[in-house]
Amino acid sequence: MAKHMSSEMDRTFWALADPTRRGVLERLAKDPGLSVSELARSFSLKLPGMTKHLDVLSDAGLITRTKTGRTVAVSLAPAPMQEAMAWLSQYERFWTVSLDRLVALVEEDAAR
Amino acid sequence: MAKHMSSEMDRTFWALADPTRRGVLERLAKDPGLSVSELARSFSLKLPGMTKHLDVLSDAGLITRTKTGRTVAVSLAPAPMQEAMAWLSQYERFWTVSLDRLVALVEEDAAR
């Protein structure tokens, strides 16, 4: 189970480690259901190039593709992002602590 | 600037796409300042193997290494995780919407 979870998280973070793939997710958040060819056009990619990126996103569970006739509509699937965020949120206390320290330093400085 | 930000985020997500590297961050959250050899030992890795993982984490700005004599202490640097979380939080409304829909469905079902 831990191993299974690991490899899911691996795929999510790996899919997010590319600016085009993050761009596709941002685009889909604004325009849900865009077609593969519209996505390819807006990133100036050929269809096979966009399809490769969509395959990585789909393997990570970050998008779903629905075929109607000859058109493939792409939609955002946010669950893996929620899991990634839950993992990252474990570390929230570290940057909160750093911010508290910063505020304390600024106040100290102002009190001088 | 956008490009610079992109490549920083690429490195962060890429560094997080490995269970050992995520494990190292989890370990450092509990035991800050662990040495490289202690980390290698707890992940049953040889020193060069652990050093490679630490290089990836360090390139992403996720850890700092401090050398004192012959010991290298490793600490967590949470800033890139905060940026990654800020990026992910753009999508929070999507899973919140899905959860709202789920609650509505359950309530509908209960009302029958």
UniProtKB/TrEMBL annotation, chains A, B:
Domain HTH arsR-type: 1-96
InterPro entries, sorted: ArsR-like_HTH, HTH_ArsR_DNA-bd_dom, WH-like_DNA-bd_sf, WH_DNA-bd_sf
SUPFAM superfamilies for the chain: Winged helix' DNA-binding domain (SSF46785)
Xref: Pfam families: HTH_20
Alphabetical list of PANTHER family matching this protein: SLL0088 PROTEIN (PTHR38600:SF2), TRANSCRIPTIONAL REGULATORY PROTEIN (PTHR38600)
Protein name in the entry: ArsR/SmtB family transcription factor
Annotated source species: Phenylobacterium terrae
Lineage: Bacteria, Pseudomonadati, Pseudomonadota, Alphaproteobacteria, Caulobacterales
